[in-house]
């Protein structure tokens, strides 16, 4: 797996921070794994030499972006174990991508920055049109990412699928594909999907696994028919019901270009247009809809008018029910109020009767005063 080894490692001094730069060459459609550990990140400058047991965590992101590119994943089981950047680039990812990795020493709180320059190119060698994916239940994703177990898987798989050189195409944790975190029981693993490609066709053994017979047995909960020796056991426990084979050797028929028609349906003997609707008379409906509410409204209006006008007992009855004293009182107040209003409206009004000195209460006769009493001092002596 030559693609896993860093090609160059040159240090670029950025002020005080030493940012290490590594160039890697992932290939489109092939698994890419980069291990982040003490050696690869050269975590600290020599004078702060960290013991290789120091717990370290990493944070990786695409330069200028907060997260990794879509095809790349990061995983690390614990700070005492290495972290992995892994994934399979797609055709649209071709080109140069710069990943910035920050390593945090959890003991000394030192951080180091590292840059991975990914030059993603097309893979060399023959096309791998025959692709098979296996669900390995006995491993976590970190356990198959290092090159040793990965190549051991390929070697073991070679026993089922020969002849031909097998290559790893994609590795995904089963958790990323809807799997569930296993119970914390010894020996239970999350599971990992491993996709393998080859230039040589599938063996009969593999083909039998996806036959309808085997699928039916799987649906009943029985193990499928495995016609050959399971060379992967006992290292890798593969769920033989979850094997999927993809044959890309036959090019998919290109989508037919739809030909636009003239927009008119051809004559179809089975097409039965709806019969013509019979004319309907809506007059009664309309009358009922309009007249009934109108009549009800009219009735209500009449009832209200009767209550308001015809059952009114009037001023006369009210006056009778009021005591005389109250009536006189009321009339006096009203008369005085009226008078005051008139006075306010015009200063020319005659003086109020009550202020005239000579005022016969009984006859209402009055004589103009010879002297305006308001001008006469109350105590004449003072004059
Ligand atoms: C690799 O597998 C993951 C998960 O199944 C999938 O999302 C991704 O598209 C695959 N990559 C390629 C290049 O097929
Ligand atoms: C195996 O595949 C079947 C359908 O193909 C699916 O229902 C089942 O959940 C899969 N098992 C696991 C463990 O992923």
From TrEMBL:
The keyword Membrane applies. This is Alpha-sarcoglycan isoform X2. It is found in: Cell membrane, Sarcolemma; Cytoplasm, Cytoskeleton. Pfam families: Sarcoglycan_2, Sarcoglycan_2_C. Coiled coil: none annotated. Residues 23-127 form the Dystroglycan-type cadherin-like domain. It comes from Erinaceus europaeus. The keyword Heme does not apply. PANTHER family: ALPHA-/EPSILON-SARCOGLYCAN FAMILY MEMBER, ALPHA-SARCOGLYCAN. The chain crosses the membrane at residues 286-308. It is a single-pass membrane protein. Residues 1-19 form the signal peptide. Keywords: Cell membrane, Cytoplasm, Cytoskeleton, Glycoprotein, Membrane, Signal, Transmembrane, Transmembrane helix. Component of the sarcoglycan complex, a subcomplex of the dystrophin-glycoprotein complex which forms a link between the F-actin cytoskeleton and the extracellular matrix. Belongs to the sarcoglycan alpha/epsilon family.
